[in-house]
Specification:
This protein is an alpha+beta fold. The chain has three helices and ten strands; from the N terminus they run αβαβαββββββββ. Strand 4 and strand 5 form a beta hairpin. The longest helix has about 45 residues.
Length: about 190
């Protein structure tokens, strides 16, 4: 009888070991699921703010030739440039400084005009059919040096740093809304 009791203990031990192992495996599976949930949350946040931070500064765009080295836009109609630039001229050099969103349902770019006397860049949001929906000037400089606009976008806030020879230094702050347009917070 003692031998059978010992055998029963062995079976119970094995059964308990199998149960504990199953529970351990299930816990690990839940941790992986938790990682997927965390990834889902991160993806959702990226959908809310679907592009990364950017900074447009004179030293990067002009002094270091960043603007001149960016991609030349040859198809002005595709980027709807005549609607963005009030001084549009087909002979001007327009450049794709950055693609902020690679999502075809949410095309967003930084586009600039390079000219011998002034350089200007815009944040441009397009419809899925690639028509301009919203644009905001985010960089400006001219040969006279009487106006400089630099910008920084971080999280959902755009800050413009404006240095005007006549009006002095000003900082304007905008928030990005749910349709990816900027609204004034502080002017």
């Amino acid at each position: 009888m003692l031998k059978n009791h010992s055998r029963l203990n062995s079976y119970v031990s094995i059964f308990i070991w199998i149960c504990l192992n199953s529970i351990f495996i299930q816990c690990q599976s839940n941790q992986n699921s938790s990682l997927s949930t965390s990834s889902l949350v991160k993806d959702t946040l990226q959908t809310i703010i679907p592009f990364s931070a950017f900074e447009l500064r004179l030293i990067d765009l002009i002094d270091s030739n960043g603007l001149h080295n960016s991609t030349l836009i040859k198809n002005h109609e595709y980027f709807d440039l005549s609607h963005i630039d009030e001084g549009y001229d087909s002979t001007y050099s327009y450049r794709l400084v950055d693609t902020l969103s690679k999502n075809p349902q949410l095309p967003v770019y930084i586009i600039a005009r390079e000219y011998e006397n002034e350089d200007i860049a815009w944040y441009c949001k397009y419809t899925p059919q690639h028509k301009i929906e919203f644009f905001k000037e985010v960089f400006y400089t001219n040969a006279e040096g009487n106006l400089l606009i630099e910008s920084r976008f971080k999280q959902d806030t755009l800050t413009l740093f404006i240095d005007d020879i006549n009006e002095g230094k000003v900082r304007e702050v905008y928030s990005l809304d749910s349709v990816y347009k900027f609204n004034v917070i502080k002017k």
